[in-house]
Design a protein that fits this description.
alpha/beta, Beta-Lactamase, 2 domains, eight-stranded mixed β-sheet, six-stranded antiparallel β-sheet, 25% helix
Length: 306
Amino acid sequence: MGRFMEQIGGKLPLQIRQYIAEEDGLGLEEIRARVGQSMEFCYGNGEVKRLGKIGKSEMEEFLNYLSGYSLYAYEEEIRQGFFTIEGGHRVGLTGHTSCGMDGKGNLGQILNVRDINGVNVRVAHEHKGCAAKLVPKLWKDGILGNTLILARPGAGKTTYLRDCIRILSGNGQEEGMKICVVDERSEIAASSQGVPQNDLGTRTDVLDNCPKSQGMRMVLRSMSPQIIAMDELGGEEDFEMLYQIIYSGSRILGTVHGDSLLDIVQKPYIQNLLQEGMLQRLVWLQKNEQGERSIRVFDERLEEIC
């Protein structure tokens, strides 16, 4: 029995499970279930298999299996629309949200998500070694360059970021760098009940389920990191914190998404970092229709590194 069947296959509704007894999960990226619709198995090459139809009772069964009949244990994560299960597989949710009121009488923080009508299980694939040829290009004059991995959504930038962290952190035999991962949505370490499910090397500390800007500030003050890594930089506060990290002497390793390389480098925050010489490496990651990925690496002058 493959890793997929061990970790997820047994958590599928019974009438669906019988159809995929031999499914080993190779190439599988998502399992999507919607009340009243067929369950979908989505693959990296664009193929979609549809099996059975999910009713309300099957959805409840699916959620019970996924959570080990302890959905309440994931309450804090569910408020953000997801929870992570053993193996690093992330379960996204849609349904009816209940919101509290802020001090001005406006809808504020989400209190819970109930009457769940949609589930998206993002199947975790670590792809160890995918960044082996990339990491050597991130160094400049013997110093790791501040690096951003850029790509369209779904191209695999988090996968490459994760493997860069693993390689740079070391394996216990070779001395690695001290890395702090600020994992706002549990996508890098895929922590389940506080325990990282993905291999991030031997010298990596993980701050899970914490807003990036706040988390970066926390680890910078207390963990003496050589590298701070984070996924999906976007807001003004995120980029303001990058300045503090760089001025402190730590290095940054992060991701940003956009439609094209030009689109991303024209973002004001990134332009400022480039103009001030604070970014040394930009990595453009692409995925073609067959699911194959390619990388291009650029320096601060946007000249390609061969």
